[in-house]
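Give me the 3D structure for DUF5082 domain-containing protein.
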Amino acid sequence: MIKVSLASIDSQIRSMNSSINGLRGQVLQKQEEVQRLERAISEISGLQGDYEESRKYWRDIDLTAKTWKGELADKFDAFRNGELSASFTDVSQDEVQRVVEALEQAKGMLVAEIDSCQMQMASKQSSLDRLRADRKKELQS
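Predicted structure for DUF5082 domain-containing protein (141 residues):
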């Protein structure tokens, strides 16, 4: 009779350990995803700063007759005011902010999932500790 009970407890202990290890793996994976999102958010924010900084360089170049003139200057000016200006306008500050906010929201969801997994792990660890105590009692009886 003791062997059946011990076998059952041992089986439950193995199952609980397996479950805890699975949750631990999920936490690690989600933590890596959070880190990737944080890097992406940082890079996008940095690129937005670079974007704004570079905008003043092409926009503020003054082409006067003393600095640059002729057909090439006219072509550059047309390019700057046409295609280049349009490409900078395509990516607005609001659009970049929406992307960053979406990434922040995804990060928040992952952090909540990590917290949930850690709470489950703590609960399962308590159950595992009880099972180990039960096993010890069975061995002593």
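The chain has a mean pLDDT of 84. Let me know if you want a second pass.
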